[in-house]
Amino acid sequence: MKVYKLTCFSIALIYPLLLVADVHIVDQKNKEFSTTELRVKVGDEIRFTNQDPFFHNIFSLSDTMFFDLGSYPQGEFRSIKVKQSGVIEVECAIHPSMNMKIIVEE
Ligand SMILES: [Cu+2]
Q: May I ask which residue range the UniProt record assigns to the signal sequence (predicted)?
């Protein structure tokens, strides 16, 4: 009985860890995003890393998620956490040719 209780207790502790959101990395290199389309789940985190020797400024005007990460230099990243499903069109304020989309699923 003691072992049974301990097992239940352990599962109760571990279960939330299995539901932990994923972290997706999107690089910005040579004025391009490392992917043009990314599929994620609600609750996931997306990290935008700057690999270029100049600034980028990632933002989105999408209804699904509106954000502006500001400009930041090489070696740094900014991240977002998606809170609802839908499509997020991502752009760079400094380089208009840069764009990608994030498809957020339940
Ligand atoms: Cu840029």
A: 1-21
